[in-house]
Amino acid sequence: MFKTSLTNPDEFTITYELVPGRGSGGKRIDRLLDFAEKAKMDGRIKALSVTDNPGGNPALAPVAIGSELQLIGIEPLIHFSLKDKNRNQVESHIFLYQRLQMLSLLVLGGDFPKSGYYGQAKPVFDLDSIQTLRLMQDMEHGCYRHRLHTKDSSSSISALFKGCVVSPFKTTEAEQVWQYAKLLYKVRAGADFIITQLGFEMTKYQEMMTFCRQHSIEQPVLANIFIPSLPVARAMAAGKIPGVVVSKELPTVMEQEADRGDRKARLLRAAAMIRTIRELGYQGVHIGGNELRFADIKFIMDQVEQTSQKQLNDRVLHFQSGNGWYLYKPVRAGQNNLCQTPLHPGTKPGAAGLHQLIHHLLFSRQTVSGRLFKKFCLFCAKDKIRTRTLQTAEQWIKRLLFNCRMCGDCTLAESTYLCPQSGCPKRLVNGPCGGSLHGFCEVFPDRHCFWVRVYNRLEQNATITSLSSSPALPPKNWALEKTSAWINYFKKQ
Ligand code: SF4
Questions:
Q1: 441 lines ligand 1 (CB under 6 A)
Q2: What pTM did the predictor assign?
Q3: pLDDT value, residue 151
Q4: Ranges of each domain in the chain
Q5: Which of 24, 93, 316, 352 could share a disulfide with 457, CB 3.0–4.6 Å?
Q6: Is the CB of 424 inside a 6 Å radius of any atom of ligand 1?
Q7: Can you tell me the distance from the alpha carbon of 334 to that of 377, in angstroms, rounded to the nearest whole number?
Q8: C-beta of 180 in contact with ligand 1 (< 6 A)
Q9: Following DSSP, what letter does each residue of 128-170 receive, concatenated?
Q10: pLDDT tens, 350-390?
Q11: Nearest C-alpha to atom 2 of ligand 1 is from which residue?
């Protein structure tokens, strides 16, 4: 039903996000199920999404609520997050959801794990969202076993409806360019639909649709309409929710509304946003929020259907997120025609050029030194002592230069000779997560996001298309950890 609705250009699809907390029952779960029953009776919400350990905290697994939603007769849209699953767990969950006929999955990396039993959980992030979409696509095509060099395709699955996320709300060029480049990757990896990060800046929602049109992205896009309570709006404006960029004006406006006793204000604002979103060409909205009952969402949906945009327009819609960065700007001030803003990658190249030269000299087949180095590494590989000596030399050199962690499956050249294994807490190799804020890392807010640093070292002619044009890196082979990446590289050739 969700897929049919979302892929029908004449329909405007509404989904709603349920957030089960820590625990297997209680009032919170009762409220979610009550919401689901009412939504089923109403019929306008096409799927209820169920979060997967949101905020990096342990919670009831989405499959539990998903099963109850199926019994109620409303489709679950399962958040498939990667922070707590290694690739085998990812695969077994795909089989699980397939078995249970929960075919709509929203693939996302997820927030960095927070404190759990005896302290902070170990972050997994074995696959990123691009690699997971690719795995799902391969499984659908029955060809994923071939990557393990066997011809067994008996474990193939039938088609999933796979979603991905993107944030159009980043405030710096580097973050925003990466978000769009990753979106192109995700679409190529088989994403069937897209859901945006939540936000309140209409210019950015518009930018997202312009980008999709410019890049011929045909997948339907749902805008994330979040309806915060005042404390949550304050937390979002203070940058306390990973990846969420919200203007300080929003809580100020909400405080004024609270002073006036205007309890419906946040609902009317959501209705006004949804009307605008529909006019921008989105195929639907993904509504979420806190302290909401079904009656509130029904009120919003009624307002969207019954109230004119003019009546809704006086609700503040456009909360600009400070000195943001925009991919498009008017050709001339005051005009509607847009042109793309010039990009400025490579502003702090550091030693990237020197490392690139050394890489070329040692690893290129076109150079004599590269051919000799290959012979030398393969010669060392034939004997245990020589292998260990080379490995120790590699470890010293690369630890000194790159803070190398000896993963044995080196991708330094793909990230401007900065090491994602030591530089990015999520160890992402195909671009950033969505958690950064104003260029700083979600996990270590006093450090620049690793991928912002990579952007600053890129060649100056890099574009969004060029960033996403090379094949995405496959998952790392952890069997190679603590072995010589030099030998492994030449053995693969
Ligand atoms: S360095 Fe960037 S990509 Fe890595 S966790 Fe931090 S914000 Fe995310």
A1: yes
A2: 0.95
A3: 53
A4: 2-312, 352-492
A5: 352
A6: yes
A7: 62
A8: no
A9: -HHHHHHHHHHHHTT-GGGGGT----TT--PPPEEEEEE-S--
A10: 999 999 999 999 999 999 999 999 999 999 999 999 999 99
A11: 449
